[in-house]
């Protein structure tokens, strides 16, 4: 009986580690689900917004969308290209090679440190579908002059 005890303890420790890493990962990129819902509800609007946000033409947008499974993946590729100053065709090729390994691996392959301030900001939110006034409350302009009254 005492010979099995260390195995049970080891199994318990491994279980706790796996559960805690799953919970931690679940908090990353929470915005993706909502992004996909909005984008899939209005595909032509998505293309127009991507063109305007990233200042690229319709052909590039179609190329990106044709190489990904979800609208949020297209946004991520365009955003990572922007952050890394790499052409989108290069980012798409890296994506194909690194697909399934996670955004951190792709970012790192593009020279973006996964632990960097910029990458953390990317994980926490996107700057495509959002309300500029959300979360600012009524005190938004407290102490700031709006000019002459």
What does this structure look like?
This protein has 149 residues and is mainly alpha-helical. The protein has a domain at 28-124. The chain is 63% helix and 0% strand. The protein is built from eight helices and no strands. The protein has helices spanning 5-26, 31-41, 43-54, 58-66, 71-84, 88-98, 103-109, 117-124. Helix 5 (71-84) packs across helix 6. The termini are far apart. Mean pLDDT is 76; it is low at 16-27 and 131-149.
DSSP summary, beta strand count: 0
Give the strand content. Answer: under 5%
The helix/strand series, from N terminus to C terminus, equals HHHHHHHH
Distance between the ends: 83 Å
* Number of distinct helices: 8
CA radius of gyration = 21 Å
Q: Summarize the amount of helix as a percent range.
A: 55-70%
Question: Key terms for this structure?
Answer:
149 residues; mainly alpha; 8 helices; 0% strand; disordered C terminus
Helices, strands, pairings?
Elements (H helix, E strand, L loop, with lengths): L4 H22 L4 H11 L1 H12 L3 H9 L4 H14 L3 H11 L4 H7 L7 H8 L25
Helix pairs in contact: 5-6
Short overview:
The chain has helices at 5-26, 31-41, 43-54, 58-66, 71-84, 88-98, 103-109, 117-124. The protein is an all-alpha fold.
């Amino acid at each position: 009986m005492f010979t099995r005890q260390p195995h049970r303890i080891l199994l318990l420790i491994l279980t706790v580690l796996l559960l805690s890493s799953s919970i931690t990962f679940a908090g990353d990129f929470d915005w993706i689900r909502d992004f996909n819902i909005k984008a899939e509800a209005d595909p032509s609007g998505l293309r127009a917004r991507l063109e305007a946000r990233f200042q690229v033409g319709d052909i590039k947008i179609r190329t990106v969308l044709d190489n990904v499974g979800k609208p949020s993946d297209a946004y991520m590729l365009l955003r990572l290209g922007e952050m890394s100053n790499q052409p989108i065709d290069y980012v798409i090729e890296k994506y194909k090679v690194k697909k399934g390994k996670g955004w951190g691996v792709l970012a790192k392959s593009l020279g973006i440190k996964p632990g960097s301030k910029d990458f953390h900001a990317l994980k926490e939110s996107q700057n495509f579908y959002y309300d500029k006034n959300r979360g600012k409350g009524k005190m938004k302009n407290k102490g700031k002059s709006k000019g002459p009254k």
